[in-house]
Amino acid sequence: MQMRLPLLPFRYLALVLLVTCVIGCSNLKLASKPTTAVPLSGVWLIDATASDDIAGAMRPDKQLLGKGRLSTRSEIERIRRGSGLAIVADGFQILDANTIEIEVGSDSMGVQHRPGVYRDVSWGIKERGIWRIHAGWEENVLVIASKTSGIDVLERYQLVDNDRLMVRLDIQADGNKRAIALVFRRLQ
Known about the structure:
The chain is an alpha+beta fold and 188 residues long.
């Protein structure tokens, strides 16, 4: 006589495994230090000709097509919250900076944006105002992931060579997706 095992526990187990994988796979795995020394510290000047057009990239789409289109309810909620792209444009000073001065320590990074304000980012996961920020190193790339209700911003600071820094921003807000690349040249 064969015993039949009830399927119900296996369904729960499969669901738990699926949820665990989705949660675990979506999280960034960031280290507290790069795999090799990365000299990000210094003063950097924007190379406007090598960088993307910020004004064009941050303009909201008039009509979203395909999968990115918002439902009527989501659009009403977005309008109530305010424009996510406007929040990103206002809150991420790197988008307006002509020069940046970076100081990297063993547990954090400070950036003075000109024009703009000073920003301090500690490695790990922190809550700052409306933002949940996860910062650290993905091999030799400094990654800062900022998330709030309906807005995700992923910044990647990567040396192209010793005198050139690329800052890439992947932005999701208002049902829009934006990818912006900024190139800076080392002044000192």
